[in-house]
Every structure is written in C-alpha cells, then in structure tokens.
Amino acid sequence: MTQVKTAVKRDPGLYEAWLNIGGSPIADPADWDHIMENHFGICNDEEEFAWAYVENHFDDIPEHLHCYFDCEKYARYLFSTDFVSAYDNAGNMHVFSKNF
Fold this sequence. Notes:
Layout: H1 2-10, H2 12-20, H3 29-38, E1 39-43, H4 46-57, H5 71-81, E2 83-87, E3 93-97
Antiparallel strand pairs: 1-3, 2-3
C-alpha cells in the first residue's frame, strides 16, 4: 500500500483525472501501471492532442499539406472513438485511452 500512496503523491493530478473519467481507485501497484499504460499525456485541448497524435503516427504527411488537414474534426473523431479527456483540480487536461 505504501507504493500506491507514493505513486498518488508523485502525480496527484493524474490520479484525480483518472477518477474523473470513472477509473477505479487504485489498490495495488499494478493498478498504477494500468493507469500509466492508458494515460497519453497532458494537453491544452483536444485539438492540440490530435495534432500531436498526427505528428507521432503519420510521419508521411508533408508539412505543406497540413493546411488541408482538418484537425478539429479529427480531434472530435479521436475523442468519440479512442480517447477520453478529463481535468484535474489544477485545470490540466489529461488524455486517456477509452479502453481502460
């Protein structure tokens, strides 16, 4: 249980956001690992996450074609199918996989 308390103290915002999306409270270190596996980071908004996702997963989109890509719509798609966002008490938006 000490490892669990240490993990929660290390990143209370992540844990708050996890609980805000309906995640289960953690009872052992394996639960914290599960949270970390499903956490995709902190962003200002869903569109920022979508751009980062595109840049990390679609290396073959040339820079000069970015203006033709509707990232706002892609963000809506991502957050309706694969991801969910939640805020911690400090106002940080955390992104999690919907497959938690």
